[in-house]
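Lab manual, section 2.4: Encoding a predicted structure.

Procedure: take the sequence of the chain (119 residues), apply the prediction step described in section 2.3, and record the output as structure tokens. A sample record is shown.
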Amino acid sequence: MDDLRISDMMEMQRTLWTLHKDAWPPIAPAYGKDFILYMMEEVGECIAILKKKGGDAVVNDPAVRAHFLEEASDVLMYFTDMLLHYHVTPEELSRAYVEKHIRNMGRDFSEEYRQRYED
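Recorded output:
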């Protein structure tokens, strides 16, 4: 697959959960925060690679890039799990993402930063 859709990612995570459902907690809101924490741990692993190897290595060294992509995939997997636990649909996330992008396109980030931190 060259370009995963949100729905594909969600179905893959549901399939993985089904394989391990006897050992893993149910897909329910009560467990959603745990997946946010797992996701943040994986973000930390991405950061560690960048700190140790640098951004140029992620771009130019195939071994470092493969390791970085593995950790970035873990981030997306836990993000997807979090969405599943809160019963977010691909359509809901898509709409929210597009709406946020449209708002961001009209924002003056430099001015917002100045007002927040310099005033």
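Check your result against the sample. The first helix runs from residue 6 to 19.
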